[in-house]
Specification:
Elements lengths: L1 E5 L23 H13 L3 E6 L4 H8 L3 E4 L12 H8 L9 H8 L1 H10 L7 E4 L4 H4 L7 E5 L13 E2 L2 H14 L5 E5 L4 E8 L5 E10 L11 H4 L2 H4 E4 L6 H17 L5 E8 L5 E7 L10 H8 L4 H16 L1 H4 L1
Parallel strand pairs: 1-2, 1-3
Antiparallel strand pairs: 4-7, 5-6, 5-7, 8-9, 8-11, 9-10, 11-12
Helix pairs in contact: 1-12
Length: 334
Amino acid sequence: MKIGITYNLKDDFALLTGGAEDALEEFDSEKTVDAIVFAMTKLGFDTAKLGGGEKVISRIKKEKPSLVFNIAEGINGRSREAQIPALLELLQIPHTHSDPLTLALTLDKSMTNQVVRANGIRTPDFVIVSRISDLQKSKLPSFPLIVKPAWDGSSKGIRFSSKVDTFEALEKQVLWVLGHYPDQQVIIENFIVGKEVTVGIVGNYPPKILGMMEIGHKNGNKEDFIYSLEVKRDYKKLVEYTCPPRLAEETVKELEKMALAAYECLQCKDIARMDFRIDSRGFAYFIEVNPLPGLSPGYSDLIIMSKKYGIKYENIIAGILDNAIKRYRLGEKN
């Protein structure tokens, strides 16, 4: 079986100027793509690098893959993660990970919150603003607050200054986000003081918990941890990863229940990573979902967590492929 791989590389956009300093943060490196290819080759698959962007159509037609392993983040707009999967649907080519609807929905934090809340999953209180004047007429959650671009991932737009404790600081940070991410709204959430935990989920019908990992400062107050751009870029020095997380048994059970419920109500497929905050009472709050979790060896949270649980990199890739192959019943057709 030939597996095509769709992706966006940082190097392909390295000459772009202007915009925010983290504009390329979501894109992958050649090293990550090569690691995926190497794992697939060991598993016995034929592979083809398809890339992303406009040329991907001709490459798909040339290579004729049976399945596409999709990690493309897309380019421009709040539905950008849905671009490649929508194209693959049009061409009737099976692909790994979630479908265009789920990928478009989950990149938008406020839309995601509304869906999971409607399904009984706890989230922080939040408001959306499009301009600074909206702050005066919005019913703001209680301080402390955290300010983020409404449809970005990989900690884009999140800095040490994103957590605010006063209205003056809130105004300043909202202006900063609007200035650096002018095509987006701003989401303002109640900052949950407590531990940050990420949960990996794999599979379909039914999905299963891959593992949980607590993420916090190596030398600092774990309850004020913010996974900001500054922290991610110096993660070896600044971040402590703990598997399993240091949580009470009842909190772990609640996390498992909430993560699986969110995965299913958002209709994620094959694999995803969910982020939560745990307050002082042990209550879990859904923060966001990444249905295209990073697969960079040694860097991405899902891979760091898997390694701590003794799961090999190639087994993660194999699991994603196996779940997609079963979902499309490709084994029955070949």
